[in-house]
Design goal:
Strand content: 15-25%
Number of helices: 16
Number of strands: 27
Distance between the termini: 60 Å
Strand order of the largest sheet: 12-13-11-10-14-15-16
Low-confidence stretches: 1-164
Oligomer: single chain
Helix content: 25-40%
Shape: elongated
Length: 619
Amino acid sequence: MAPPNTSTASRRLAWPHRTLRQLLADLHGPIEHFDSLSQIYMASKYIISGRRRIYNARNTLFLAAAKFTTPEIHYFWSPQILQCPKYIISGRRRIYNARNTLFLAAADFTTLEIHYFWLSQILQCPKYIISGRRRFYNARNTLFLAVADDKAPIFAAINHPLNPIQMITHALINPRSIAVIGGSNHIHKPGGRLVKNLIEGPFTGDLYIVNPKERLIQGRPVTRNVNDLPTGIELGVLAVSAAHCTEAVRVLVEEKGARAIIIISAGFSEESTEGAAIEREICRICTAAGVALIGPNCIGLANPHHHAVFTSPVPTLGPGGVDLISASGGVALFIIECALTKGLRFHSLWSVGNAAQTGIEEVLEYMDEHFDPSTDARIKALYIEDIRDAEKLVRHAASLVRKGCRIAAIKGGTTADGMRASAMHTGAQPTSEEEVASLFRRSGIVRCYSREELIAVACAFALPRPQGKSFAVVTHAGGAGVILTDALVRCGMVVPAYRGAMADELKTRLLPGASVANPIDILGTGSAADFGLAIDYADQHFPETDAIAVIFGSIGLGPITAAVDVILEKMQTCSKPIYPILPSVLNTAEEIAHFVRHGGITFPDEVTLAQALRRMASL
């Protein structure tokens, strides 16, 4: 057998005016040389083309060669789309600005598999190779695009394919049928809880459960073997051991027609080299067939169409909520549980786990490219451990921000010990503090450092944004008003003093001893009516005010339901945004729950609110 094709490209960066030399070794023929990028070599069996825009060292040469019956290799700008019945489109790239080129290569193969490979990996295939070279800042971001023989495709050393075609499918988002592999009657185990969540959630399609030992699971009939499932399964969710996942995925994808797979099981690349090999093979099967893959080592995906997660609580998901995208299922759950008590609502939950195929970057890409302002969430909250395609993250996050979305994120694993911990958790690659700060700044992402801070920023995003930095503080506890005033000023806000006729008038209408200079303190014995009156004056009679922060707790003299209802009413009727702080989490737990049930959003602490407002103002 003849040696495989090889393709190489080198460049003289020190002399950008000089030509780039490209070498192609034909399987059976001579070596061809290109001394100018403008040259195109065409023969009876081969096409080789290259396009390069010389702006700086980051620009790229693509070298493409293939032995086709009807070969076609094309390069396109980003707005263009190539659509042919038998053609595969691959090789998407955008770096920093519109001048950079989107590369699309199309070839008429009988069957075709396309993957990206890291620079350090080697692909060997019997006959054909298409390769592209791209450089950002370091070798870790260098990718190779490879196409194997249509008769005997062989792929080696697949690590993390960055897919040229968007892999998230409609079957993942809104499937007509779901098969749970490993479902059970034990609702305190992942397979059982997963089935329970799907049954009790909004999913209305066909649900199949595979378990070799049961005949009935949670009232539903059971299929003994994945091979016995009907064809046309759209989404497969796996809750079996890693050792059994590969064959299950193969059958679902290649025989049952599944278009999306979620693997909640652990024991893959985060655990061992054997697990990593299983993960790579599963990823290869899915990517080759154009099937979306979420996980492994994740809690699943929940949205308004289905709750394919094995955890609880599962919040009510719908319009107006937050898209939560997390590398850690545990962190996602901790965020949800805390956020629900503060009135924050959710639109979807994405747990990407090891992100074998679909990471946070790909989820943002999907949300960006399919954004519908009438139905989609405008707030995104992220927990990131691994940034595998920094430019994709920046590009799509910035695009979503331009479309009116707001994004807040925690990046875990930026210290030396944190990097070690994240590598053990999800196999994350190291990213320095400086890199993260630069990426978030370029993309318009608000950086947070704790779950509480992320929730507070998301809550601030969910409320109307003030038109300026001048705040009124309305409270019945003078000390809390002082703390909030200090915090607002330290965070770049202004708390102006109120003087003049309107301030004097308000003072006469409140209890003796009340203060109206801002903070407006109605005193601990002030009524809900006094509280509402002070809010109205801040809204209507002090034009220097841009927003109102209100504090109301309990001093143990009775319920505060009336005051909570006043806040709810004023949040709807006032012309200026209101930011509520309800600090008495024990004495007024029922009133806070009432406030949240009726659509209110609250902050537990004065400083937390001020810091969230500062983060929001930094955009």
